[in-house]
Design a protein that fits this description.
Its main location: cytoplasm. The protein is an alpha+beta fold and 565 residues long. It has a domain of 349 residues. The protein has a ten-stranded mixed beta sheet, sandwiched between helices. It has a five-stranded mixed beta sheet with strand order 3-13-12-11-10. Helix 5 packs across helix 10.
């Protein structure tokens, strides 16, 4: 038989709601639990709470109490009996959790969580980059805040040649007219090949900043920078009436890329009969390589500073020559052409270079002959490919804002973009020379100083190859526009009478001037004197055929330097 279940008796409270008072003795209250606190209430009162789940214990500003819990009612008047017991209750481990020591910024965080530790080296690099960016911004705003002060052009850029009192300025051409010119030439004709070439060493294509190679010095090899009229081959071709205009690839590339130039340069033009010769002066800046020419960051003005424009140009020319010989296989195996090097003496050790004398047709009665250079040769798929070798040099990462040793492997495009911004004219001239020589590949080397303050020792960090036509398209160099500039200058010089002239790029304005100079100008016994500005001759105000009228002005800079600067 199943036992019955007795339901406890519910006491009756005649005085109100709820159970009767605990002190009232009644036989009906014997089965109630003892020592259970109860909050007395009336019908108008709110019921008490068993547990408070609405309390917020995540507020860091609220003082922590170990006795805080959802069942804690010590501060509630409804539970006077349990207040003393709860006040004596303590957790076993009452110490607060340790606070992270990662800097003062963590104490302001609202949420209690451990921060993620960042790499200290990355943080240091970011701080350095921020400082460098702030410095450049400060210089930029300083120049903007003082527009009437001396600008960088007036402080650094100086004329490449002293303008003499007896010189007569015949014309001036603003660079804005060059951008609209276009001329298409046919494929050139090779008239003569001279010199010998060594093979390119392919192992340099695998050089990285982690496997850098020390730049060697080639003091025994001779490099020649011969001007047009001193070239015996060009003299012979002129006597044979092979062309009307004669020049070198260095001079032609300077004219072709003139709109990108910032520094002053000069080219000597000689009109002899119906022939035109473009020459360079002895010690001309065309023999050197500009560095940071198109950058917005000013270089030191002191000429003796290792980071001045002149010192960097000499250093870049030295690097370029040595680099062009180091990346070759120097085992005596050479590709010799029909004629030897026209400038070398017998038994003299010369650098690996081949001179390619080429002829272009400018119109029905005018041909142009230029001496072009290639520095190396390579056999690709059993076909001979000619290479030009040039080197970009890093002197101080603070000026460019890009450290080659860190960026060349991972961000080579960013490094090249920075060089295109800071050395637009130099890279365009190298590309133009490769196009003139019809080189199959142009190799660009990245050469850096071992230490930013050591301008004698360098290392090769990387070598990258480009096809000249593709690279020209990448840097927005239009061959038709290049030949249009050359054709316009040739036509302008052909209208002049016989004599000697000099083409001078203005040091402070984007324009080129043509001066008529004495026949003995730039000779060893020719003494130059500074020219007062008020004695400058004004060019004739006339409109050339097919060109816009050039603006006439006679404000020639009074900043002068010696010829070899």
């Amino acid at each position: 038989m199943v036992g019955s279940f007795d339901v406890a008796a519910v006491p009756f409270n005649p005085d109100g709601w709820g159970p009767p008072d605990a002190g009232v003795a009644s036989s009906n209250t014997t089965n109630l639990p003892h020592n259970v606190p109860f909050a007395p209430f009336s019908r108008s009162d709110k019921l008490g709470r068993i547990a408070d789940w609405t309390r917020n214990f995540n507020n860091p500003t609220r003082s922590k109490n170990p006795s805080d819990a959802v069942f804690d009612f010590t501060n509630d008047d409804s539970f006077p009996a349990s207040a003393e017991d709860d006040a004596s209750f303590r957790l076993v481990d009452g110490k607060p959790p340790p606070r992270p020591k990662f800097g003062p910024k963590w104490r302001f965080q609202q949420q209690r969580q451990l921060p993620q530790r960042k790499d200290e080296e990355v943080e240091a690099k970011k701080r350095e980059a921020e400082k460098e960016r702030a410095r450049r911004d400060r210089l930029y705003h300083l120049n903007r805040a003082n527009p009437n002060g001396p600008r960088r052009e007036a402080a650094v850029f100086k004329s490449s040649v002293d303008i003499q009192p007896e010189w007569n300025m015949r014309d001036q051409i603003p660079f804005s007219t060059f951008s609209k010119l276009s001329f298409t030439v046919s494929e050139p004709e090779d008239l003569q090949f001279c010199g010998g070439l060594e093979y390119y060493d392919r192992t340099y294509d695998r050089v990285t900043p982690k496997s850098e190679r020390r730049l060697e010095r080639f003091k025994n090899r001779n490099f020649f920078k011969v001007t047009t009229t001193d070239d015996p081959v060009i003299r012979k071709l002129a006597n044979e009436d092979k062309a009307t205009v004669f020049a070198t690839d260095s001079i032609l590339s300077t004219l072709m890329c003139a709109p990108r130039s910032v520094y002053s340069w000069d080219i000597v033009v000689q009109r002899v009969g119906n022939k035109l010769f473009f020459d360079k002066r002895d010690g001309s800046q065309l023999d050197l390589l500009s560095v940071h020419e198109t950058s917005q960051e000013p270089l030191p003005e002191a000429k003796e500073d290792i980071n001045s424009a002149h010192s960097l140009s000499v250093e870049a020319a030295y690097i370029n020559q040595n680099f062009s010989q180091q990346v070759l296989i120097r085992d005596g195996n050479k590709v010799n052409f029909g004629e030897p090097n026209p400038f070398a003496n017998e038994g003299e050790e010369v650098a690996s270079v081949a001179y390619r004398y080429r002829r272009w047709k400018l119109d029905n009665e005018m041909y142009l002959v230029a001496r072009c250079e290639v520095q190396s040769v390579l056999d690709v798929n059993k076909q001979r490919s000619y290479l030009t070798l040039n080197a970009l040099n890093e002197f101080d990462p603070k000026y460019s804002g890009v450290d080659w040793r860190q960026k060349l492997e991972t961000q080579r495009g960013a490094v090249l973009a920075t060089e295109l911004k800071n050395n637009a004219n130099k890279l365009a001239k190298w590309t133009a020379q490769a196009l003139l020589a019809s080189a199959d590949m142009m190799k660009l080397g990245y050469v850096s100083r071992i230490h930013p303050r050591d301008h004698f020792n360098h290392v090769v960090l990387a070598v990258v190859g480009y096809k000249p036509k593709d690279f020209a398209a990448q840097i927005n160099l239009n061959p038709n526009n290049m030949w249009g500039i050359v054709k316009s200058i040739v036509d302008l010089c052909m209208k002049l009478e016989e004599g000697k002239y000099v083409l001078v790029k203005d040091p402070s304005k984007p324009q080129v001037r043509i001066y008529q100079v004495p026949a003995d100008a730039f000779e060893n016994d020719y003494v130059e004197e500074p020219l007062p500005e008020e004695e400058q001759a004004q060019p004739p105000a006339e409109v050339a055929d097919g060109e816009e009228a050039t603006t006439i002005s006679n404000d020639v800079t009074d900043k002068q330097i010696d010829n070899k600067a």
